[in-house]
Structure to design on (297 residues):
């Protein structure tokens, strides 16, 4: 019987046949694998991961796991955030940790404390703190998660007025320049305030406390971070030149430096850089800016 096939196709022994069969099976497996994960290869090429690919080829709609997203703003980068150092809350926190005029002072439990514009008093007075306007956006991030934004955190800030006095204490009848905001999906809160004055012995600064939630913000004892922001030197020089609006600040500012300050003086250059807001504007038009607050969670 005559066969039209070439002689190498047949009768070369069992070993040869097994080899050919194995090659054919391997080829089929490879073709099947590429058909199944072709989408995965595209996703991976676009920055996705293996889990993304499985979700896209499974025939079902994947439900994303809620995660915080680190989003930068035009005036701030979180690419190299660090943990802010813990600082003293000072003698005028009104956060339930000390007393004022013999009574425990706690603005955190008072109605009206949650607000963005903190220039007006909200307890027994409506006096508005005057001075150069400052609008400041603070971004709270997790330094242990590639600087991802922390949403739902409560930020409490307070500062002295243009004369260096603190509401509920040295300006006992006032409650201005204090307020709480809750971070949004980008980890941000924005406060409208004034550039604080400079009193003797301290670099111009803003106090803040961060809480894991608004519910937790009932006392400074529950804060996950207590720290301070340092005002930029150039802004202070420009603002304090108006000695009528800011009496005594220029003189006090000339006698202090960051290195001599009893709070900022022992911080590293990187810490000071993060604790100093980036501000734009002028002493006549006001200032706008931002700062990153890094927390290790």
């Amino acid at each position: 019987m005559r066969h039209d096939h070439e002689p190498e196709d047949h009768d070369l022994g069992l070993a040869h046949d097994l080899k050919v069969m194995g090659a054919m099976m391997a080829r089929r497996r490879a073709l099947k694998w590429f058909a199944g994960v072709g989408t995965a290869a595209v996703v991976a090429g676009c920055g996705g991961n293996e889990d993304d690919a499985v979700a896209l080829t499974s025939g079902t709609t994947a439900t994303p796991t809620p995660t915080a997203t680190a989003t930068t703003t035009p005036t701030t980068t979180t690419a190299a955030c660090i943990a802010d150092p813990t600082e003293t809350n000072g003698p005028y926190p009104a956060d339930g940790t000390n007393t004022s005029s013999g009574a425990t002072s706690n603005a955190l439990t008072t109605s009206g404390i949650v607000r963005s514009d903190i220039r007006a008093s909200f307890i027994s007075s409506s006096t508005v703190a005057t001075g150069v306007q400052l609008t400041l956006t603070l971004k709270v991030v997790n330094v242990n998660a590639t600087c991802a934004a922390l949403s739902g955190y409560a930020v409490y800030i307070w500062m002295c007025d243009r004369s260096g006095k603190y509401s509920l204490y040295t300006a006992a009848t006032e409650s201005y320049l204090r307020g709480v905001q809750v971070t949004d999906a980008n980890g941000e809160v924005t406060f409208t305030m004034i550039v604080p004055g400079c009193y003797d012995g301290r670099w111009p600064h803003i106090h803040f406390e961060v809480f894991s939630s608004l519910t937790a913000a009932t006392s400074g004892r529950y804060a996950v971070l207590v720290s301070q922001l340092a005002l930029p030197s150039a802004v202070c020089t420009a603002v304090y030149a108006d000695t009528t609006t800011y009496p005594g600040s220029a003189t006090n500012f000339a006698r202090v430096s960051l290195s001599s300050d009893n709070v900022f003086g022992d911080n590293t250059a990187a810490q000071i850089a993060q604790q100093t807001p980036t501000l734009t504007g002028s002493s006549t038009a006001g200032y706008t800016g931002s700062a990153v607050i890094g927390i290790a969670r």
Observations:
- The radius of gyration is 31 Å.
- The chain is about 20% helix and 25% strand.
- The helical segments are 14-45, 50-57, 233-240, 249-254, 269-275.
